[in-house]
Amino acid sequence: MSVIGHNELLKLLYREKVEERLIITPLLNPDLQINEASIDIRLGNDFIVTRRGNLAQLDPALQDIREHRHQTTHFVNFKECFYLHPQELVLAGTLEYFRLPVDVAASVTSRSQWGRAGLVIATATAVHPGFCGTITLELLNLGEVPLALYPGTSVAQIVFSQCIGGEAYDGDMAHKIGAHFANLSKDSKMADRKFWLPEKIKS
Amino acid sequence: MQRIDELSVSDYPTTTPNQIICFLQDFLARLDEVIGKAGSEDKLKMLNSLIRELGIFLEWLDNAHTEQTPRGLVQLLKDLIDQMTPDSRVIARPLAQYNYTIFDLGQLLKKLVDDFIPHSQQAGFQEYITSPIKLISFPRIERDNMLAHAIFGHELGHPIADEYLKKEGNDTAHKATHAVIQKQVAELVSQTLSGSNADDAQKLALTTQVFNIILQVRKRALEELISDVVGILIFGPSAFFACHAMFWNGNLDAKPRNDTWYPPPRMRLRLMLHLMDELDIPMKFSQIAGEQDISLYVAIVNEFLEESRKLVDIKNDQTAINSDPQLKIAYDWMNLSLENAIEYAKSSVSAVIFQSEMIFSQLPGLMRRLELGVPPNEVGDPQNPQTVDYRASLLVAWMFKLRGVNPDTGEVLSNDEVNRLYKKALTAIEYVILQNKYTSDLLQEPKAGDSA
Questions:
Q1: A13 to chain B: which residues are within 8 Å by CB?
Q2: Annotated catalytic residue: which of A80, A88, A96, A138?
Q3: If both were cysteines, with which of A106, B288, B290, B413 could B417 make a disulfide (CB 3.0 to 4.6 Å apart)?
Q4: Pick among 2.70.40.10, 3.10.20.80, 2.30.30.100, 2.60.40.10: CATH of A6-51+72-179
Q5: Domain spans in chain A, listed from the N-terminal domain onward
Q6: Residue B373 touches chain A, beta carbons under 8 Å
Q7: How large is the ipTM?
Q8: What is d(CA B182, CA B188) in angstroms, rounded to the nearest whole number?
Q9: B419-433 tens-digit pLDDT
């Protein structure tokens, strides 16, 4: 499976049938955003931070439905900033909404300018074929100084690759808008949880 | 003061709440000086009472932050209000009561400054009160229902209704009608009191009382009906769908009552439907009915409009009004003015008029996007996509909801899917406003190499 380069990206974005098209909206400045083999994506306005004091642990075996107790959403207007402190992990939604065709998968990674400043788009970077929604970026500051993050800034890029025999993704992360916290105890991929996880009573 | 400072750290959809917080901080600081110089106990009591009343600002601001108030709603209303009254500021908050309102907060701030700040210090408050400030309220239960917020077209109509009534008050023909109505009222009172021992003074008192009621009933009917007209003129069919949804579980023929004097909902729906006919809206739906992407949805809308026609063909509301002599005089009089009032409304909203030709041409492409699960914010050639009018985004979401079917499965939309639809409509509106602003700002920016 090969990475899709600039010219093929354009073909994907301009496919005649809308259902077969790679949709990224709003793609505010294609000339600036479409790179040699990736597309720059922008920060949205919503950031999720963890309220550690309210949280004993994240344990998929605990059916804690009160996720609002340990997370706070910060809305940041354009031209205002969110400070990401060293060693802090926050979730941020992309400004753009995506719809991938079934023959394309993607992965999200930092842009090198931001990476060198210490910003890492962490861990879960795979985007499945057929995915529809905004992408939640896991932002981690590995640097020594706080980073000022402005909505609309291109901090990440999305790299597309051909996917053979893919099916449209319709999992827990589909059709979301804005940043979303992972509810580990509601992971639909853990339908066999009873086999793997101990029975626990919520503390 | 401490409570106000606490509110300043919240996230708000616009800068207006923070500007109001700054106003309050400055106002209370000046008021502190006024209290220090208060010469009497009465004045202190009055200032104490004022400070308590200012507590309402805490409630407004506490509910205006982004966890309580959808940003897209604020952006949409600010965009519309700006086109009608440039440089406006907007603050929005949910209400426990089921009520939509737009309140002129700027006037209140100005009055506070005029009444309580020494003249020599008022200049420092000018930056807060020079632009119009609107406080928008909506029912908390409908917070995320972007489709219902088309009701705000009606609220935007209230200032226009007020202007019309003020203008009408100076009209000589209108003054002449007053005399005719007074005569009708006098006859009505004579009939009512025939056989009684009422003397002339009592008759005069009752005549005045009835005439004032008739004035009030007519005024309230015109206020609401003009506002309904403005709703249609701004939001097109979405305003009708939203009003219909609000009215359907109530009494459509409820007679005007002396608390609010609201006209009967059936009458309001009839007028809106009549206006849509006059604006050729049903014809516009028919013109896109042949488009593959949207034909099923147009068929449902046509059915809905047909059912609505049957609903308004029933005249129980008019029968109820005609059976009450006071209401009959008020409504007959109101009906004489309605045509002029509608024309006035049309001329007042030209800057934000629902451009049906353009909006309807955008619907098929937007519906295809919605069916694919994508926010309905742009259409056309993907190499050069066209940002749509956000009222097209709203209307296409209404059509999707009215059909109520998941296009992939053919099953009835679940609550989750309906909520998702609301969110996509909201996101589309945010995107449209952002895309327009981005494009216009970049176009204004001088290109590299241009001489300064």
A1: 382
A2: A138
A3: B413
A4: 2.70.40.10
A5: 6-51+72-179
A6: yes
A7: 0.89
A8: 10
A9: 999 999 999 999 999
